[in-house]
Amino acid sequence: MEKVLIIYGSKQGSTAAMAGYIADVLESRNIPVVSKNVFEAKPEELKEYKFILLGSSTWSDGDLQSDFIDFEREMDDLDLKGRFGAAFGSGSSRFRFFCEAVRILEAKLRSLGCRIMLPSLMVNDLERRSEEESREWAAVLADEIEQIN
Ligand SMILES: Cc1cc2nc3c(=O)[nH]c(=O)nc-3n(C[C@H](O)[C@H](O)[C@H](O)COP(=O)(O)O)c2cc1C
Question: Residue of the nearest CA to atom 3 in ligand 1?
Fold first, then answer.
């Protein structure tokens, strides 16, 4: 089974927790996972994986979490054709650009040739359903990965 790479950027831990729930579900389905905080990852690493999940919370009127800003720009030179991806993150509907960082990451993966496996997961921190939503999403993702593999 091909490994899944998860890279996440999280300021207060909500998106990091989502990455943990997602990894837990995938691993329970015998899908191997490598999960990294974006500050300890390099864009070139993405090429080594068939399955790529990117996660970020949203800040400052629709920006990526700060550790992800340079990383996303440095992804520009990558060719991700033949890879399969998805994006996730935590945000708050109190803000105008709800989960904009997740949209940015999904669009980035697409623009580099990566096929998007399922609609992005955008969790609203006001609803306090992050774990449930992350686990449900990861279960659908696991089905997709098993079919592609
Ligand atoms: C100053 C500030 C700006 C924010 N801007 C946005 C925003 O533009 N869009 C959004 O969806 N959430 C926004 N949020 C909410 C955070 O993204 C949300 O609390 C999220 O759960 C944090 O996730 P993290 O712990 O993974 O960093 C903002 C929060 C703060 C405090």
Answer: 59
Residue 43 Cβ inside 6 Å of ligand 1? The answer reads no
- In this structure, are residues 74 and 1 in contact, taking their beta carbons and an 8 Å threshold? no
Q: How far apart are CA 122 and CA 60, in angstroms?
A: 17
Q: Which domains does the chain have, with CATH numbers?
A: 4-148 (3.40.50.360)
To the nearest 5 percent, what fractions of the chain are helix, strand and coil? 45, 25, 30
Give the model's confidence band at 1: pLDDT under 50 very low, under 70 low, under 90 confident, else very high: confident
Task: Give the other-Cβ count within 10 Å of 134's Cβ.
Answer: 25
How remote is the CA of residue 17 from the centroid of ligand 1, in Å? 15
* Stated pTM of the model: 0.98
